[in-house]
What we know:
five-stranded mixed β-barrel; eight-stranded mixed beta sheet; single chain
Amino acid sequence: MNKYRTHNCGELTKKNTSKDIILSGWVNKKRDHGNLLFIDLRDNYGVTQCVIDKSNKHFIKLEKIQLESVIKILGKVVERDKDTINLELKTGEIEVVIDTFEILGHCKELPMPIFTDQEYAEEIRLKYRFLDLRRKKIHENIILRSQVISFIRKEMNELGFLEFQTPILTSSSPEGARDFLVPSRLNPGKFYALPQAPQQFKQLIMVSGFDKYFQIAPCFRDEDARADRSPGEFYQLDLEMSFVEQEDVFNVVEKLMINLFKKFSSKKILSNKFPRIPYKEAMLKYGTDKPDLRNPLLIYDLTNVFTREDVKFDIFKKLVKSGSKVRAIVTKNTKDKPRSFFDNIDKWAKSEGGSGLAYFTIENQNEVSAKGPVGKFFSKQSLEEIMKITGAKIGDSIFFACGKIKDVEKISSLAREKIAHDLNLIDKNSFAFCWIVDYPMFEIDDDNKIKFSHNPFSMPQGDIEKIDFKNPLNIKAYQYDIVCNGIELSSGAIRNHRPELMYKLFSLAGYDKNQVDEKFSGMINALSYGAPPHGGIAPGVDRILMLLADEKNIREVTMFPMNQNAQDLMMNAPSEVSENQLKELNLSLKKRK
């Protein structure tokens, strides 16, 4: 018999009544009732209430014990009185009468409470992460993480995928973020890079003749932290398939996501066949390529309305003449909303860096008219055109934004979220997945140069022999994102497996053949030896867990996260290294002035 326990703290029931047992765990709570001392003993599996009488010689020692000390108790299981049963605990129908106990691990004074899930300062939580992880909610999140990853592996195996591990020490490649570099001792002056993703390796696996690959892959990017992005490292379900088209990838991922989210959440999935939304349509209707489809509000283009002679809203008209665009959002049946509702949204838009949101409400006294600060600038005919474009009815309100295309898309997207939140329009008990497709292969950067908009290894759409290379901004790619509830879970693509086509596409983005050969020598060389058509995707494990655990910050589903400055406060990383270590690596540090 194990000397520390006969049972764990989550399994004793009435069936164990009158049995002598041994439990070990952490002292979660103490309640002193004078003649009786109640101790909630906690381990990974649950909590068991234990009780000791004042007449027991161990009473005083247990009474003084520090919370979170680790103890072993020997005692007898008894049924609780009916009025003391705790249905919230699996062990809530019994308690253990303590006979003897032993302290296995003393606990110092706690820097933070463990028995509550109240918010606590990030610095304390991360410095004492081993204590933070004892707290019920985050402990359950990390257990959920393990269960989700195990489920994914099982599903992928059943779908015929083989799990392989790709290198961690590799070469630097321009994939959009800064690399973490690792100096080579054996090759002075040269560096490895930690992989931003196993992109090139998983394509090489397909070239190697394997048909379906997956991996729960660690990825490393020297990026700033966000609520949905850890600084430094994250994990993704990396997968790749040979002899597939875009729809084949979609079918695999949709099946996996539906099974996964149904298994680990009681929320409903709004559509088992995820909508396919072209990128251009997404930017118009939602102002973003990460739309939350739980939000019923849409964005409409009203730019042409402001070229009409009978529209006298001169501020917008002048902007439109100079190339600006007008976007509008309709809110249904808001005629009775107080003026403060509209003014607060206008004020909010200004706080977001915009020029505000114009608005009016459509009325019909004797004829169609508009009530609101800018309503007088619109004729009956112009209002009727607006109603036709947007589907607005009498009693609906319309918010307007005007500006350069990127600016107006950004503010209208944020306004769509803000208005829906204020009107309580979002069904928080659901998951709304979609695919964003038909991404442009190229875009113009701030220096007016052509660059890849997404993944440079993607296959362009259409007849390869008839691609219009003279107009690269018109080239669409077989690139796609999967989005859920406004969170991008992953990007993917059908890959470009033809070297000559790759050279041509890279040349449009300013890379010559020698640069491509130097940066992607392994890939280009491999593709020259008979490469199959292939494609894949890599959903982020951390973001999937955020959705399943209903958390707003990725820190809550990560076991040992860094802080916002990419520091591990618990292990004091990054840290300084010794002169001897630097000497071995042929490195010297330049002191900052």
